[in-house]
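Thread: sanity check for a docking pose with zinc ion

Original post by kr_44:
Hi all, I'm comparing my docking run against an independent structure prediction. Below are the sequence and the ligand SMILES. Could someone generate the full complex and paste the structure tokens? I mainly care about where the ligand ends up relative to the chain.
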Amino acid sequence: MQSIFAENALLPDGWATNVNVRIGDDGHVAEVTPNAAADTAATRVPVLVPAVSNLHSHTFQRAMAGLAERRGPNERDSFWTWREVMYRFLDILTPDEIEAVAALAFVEMLESGFAAVAEFHYLHNQPGGAQYDDIGELAVRIAAAASQSGIGLTLLPVYYRQGGVDGRPLKGGQLRFANELDSFGNLVARSMEIAAGATADTGFGIAPHSLRAVPAADLAELAGWQPQLPLHMHIAEQEAEIEETLAVLKGRPVEWLLGNHDVDDRWCLIHCTHMTPDEASRLGASGAVAGLCPVTEANLGDGIFDAPTFLKPAGNFGVGSDSNISISVAGELRQLEYSQRLRDRARVVLAEPKQSAGRRLYLGALSGGMRALNRNSGEIAAGRWGDLVALSAGELSAFGAKDLVLDEWIFTGGVQVRDVWAAGRYMVRDGSHVSSDAIRARYRKVLESLGSRL
Ligand SMILES: [Zn+2]
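Reply from moderator J.T.:
Ran it for you. Here is the predicted complex with zinc ion included:
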């Protein structure tokens, strides 16, 4: 049993003071007592909040962060030129390197305040496309990296079958993603075995990559495979994708999906950048989680999510670090709000009248993240996983309003992440991950090797 004593804690019904939180050896919160005296052995923290789950990541892309910031030869640089760099890069990554990069990304996620991650895992094959002897070789590596870092993992094996909506074949770097339904069935079975052999909080779901990469008939089949599990899919990220689905499927991506599938709260749809107001409103009402990755979307120049229209019918959203160009809970939420302000030329767009933006953004990300990962977290309450973040008090505590600590964390950077627990595993202490030195040293070796081979 561990104890945390928080001077201030964000509980399901609001802020409370002098809160003792006990976490059982099974990683669940056992007891929450406000207005308490501290246990003698308790870890004392100024502010305690539930930790957000990162609902979308491709960890291997962390190793190319910063390497695609040089402009290409074209008049206009775009997602598609970035993707060429990414494909060249992943063509040389070995399983050991994939594990080392993932561990580093997971450490950075924990240090930024994420306690869990949904890894949208689409790198399955050897360079050139041959399967590994163990079809789950690279899923094993992701699970190993999660175990080394202590992060909570929801493993999402990705189905990737074709090079575009028109069914063109895969080529080059894409061959490492390739599966047909039969081989994907084997991969899913193996990945479930890997998840079942990991820590008790490890989750599982499946991820048809996108309408670009998955034929409509295969998507219909996959949606029926494990109807109780989360289903994640990229959608409407790029304008070229809209044009392709209009040409082939005779509908815009979100419009087509809503018309052809029972989209509900098991669906986590990543990006949803290009929607008409009608699509945004209907998707918001469907219960699906919009998996927003505002930092990556800004980095790639994707476009801006229509949050006001989507949220009006009680739409659910969460955030993900996606390309891992910069891993930050606060950074994702800040970029989400700022993108809305820049488009609408207005302030505090996402909050309700008189509500703090920080609180609105944070509660939204908690709820959507937990739903997308199918993870029993998101609140400091008995029976939930002990996914917790301790924050420094910040300067604005002098002004009294407790929500200011969230606003200060997200918007000014004046509040830091001090400690993080993932399902009770105490992984970040005083701002640093407990295995930071070893995992960072291994990662630097990988970068040296990649630098000489790229
Ligand atoms: Zn993605």
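The radius of gyration is 21 Å. Hope that helps with the comparison, let us know if your pose agrees.
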